[in-house]
Amino acid sequence: MGYSNSLLATFFFLCLELYVINGQPLVPAMFIFGDSVVDAGNNNYIYTIVKANFRPYGRDFVHHKPTGRFCNGKLAADFTAENIGFTSYPPAYLSEEANGKNLLIGANFASGASGYYETTAKLYHAIPLSQQLEHFKDYQRKLEGIAGKTNASSIISGGLCLVSSGSSDFIQNYYINPLLYKVYTPDQFSDILIESFSAFVQKLYGLGVRKIGVSTLPPLGCLPATITVFGSDSNECVDKINGDAVSFNNKLNATSQSLVNKLSGLNLVVLDIYQPLHDLVTKPSENGFVEARRACCGTGLLETSILCNKKSIGTCANASEYVFWDGFHPTEAANKILADDLLSSGISLIS
């Protein structure tokens, strides 16, 4: 079965390349919602400490300049855009680039430190999903003005919507917030998040979106910062926290299937990021990496956002050897592998 799946994926990528060579993206647009894993720079324009618009962020990106992406280079969403034929990336909605014909290929509404739990974003003055949705409504109005109502409707229904959320809810809120972990078990908290996810998808559906790829939680217990804070002086992944992620992902799969059964014409695919990233962390050398415990930036044990800066001592010279760029986020090299895995698992969204 694994061999036949590999052949299918290889055949698909060959067909995809032939299609893309003709200069036609496989979908008319991309709409991106969620947290820092997919934020392309929206946090640059709001009052928050959760930013990545300074070096060394972006040092390996186009023109070697920081853009607000929480990475040394491209995000998995950027590679996805390239893989399906786009020659530029959906602009961060709050940026100056998000205007006129640039909006025809979609927009990125994500915000670092946002989550399914509304309060998570508020804690860090990030943009909650509810506000990201309002921005999307505003985007739709602008799109109608540019392309006309009928064309705008086709772009929305045919466009690929990516949702990445939930990690900040656990790592940056639940596990460190006694107002949550003393009141809810991880299982109860994940139920709250899943309810929010379900409501969010239904609102997107009500606005005309029909193709949605939602990523699972990654192996949260394997993030360098998580091991540093919760690992009890161990260099190993924190099994309990990984277990919470697996439990959430199981609920995400079940709820997504329920939504597909409920909403006519909805193509909702759960994109597994847990296993591919877990494989990179536990078998780095097999995937071309040298270091999977420590991140590239600074000591590699904790730094992220403002703690990862041009004065951070110890930042590595070659990020492509590392799975993680900072304490929470993968490197461009890891994102490329993750994006290819996500694309092959989400074939039905673009075929």
From TrEMBL:
GO aspect biological process, one term: lipid metabolic process
Keywords, alphabetical: Signal
Entries under CDD domains matching the protein: SGNH_plant_lipase_like (cd01837)
Keyword Cytoplasm (UniProt): no
Gene3D superfamilies cross-referenced by the UniProt entry: SGNH hydrolase (3.40.50.1110)
Signal sequence range: 1-23
Top-level taxon in the UniProt lineage: Eukaryota
Pfam family, one: Lipase_GDSL
InterPro entries, alphabetized: GDSL (IPR001087), GDSL_lipolytic_enzyme (IPR050592), Lipase_GDSL_AS (IPR008265), SGNH_hydro_sf (IPR036514), SGNH_plant_lipase-like (IPR035669)
Family the entry assigns: Belongs to the 'GDSL' lipolytic enzyme family.
Listed name of the protein: GDSL esterase/lipase
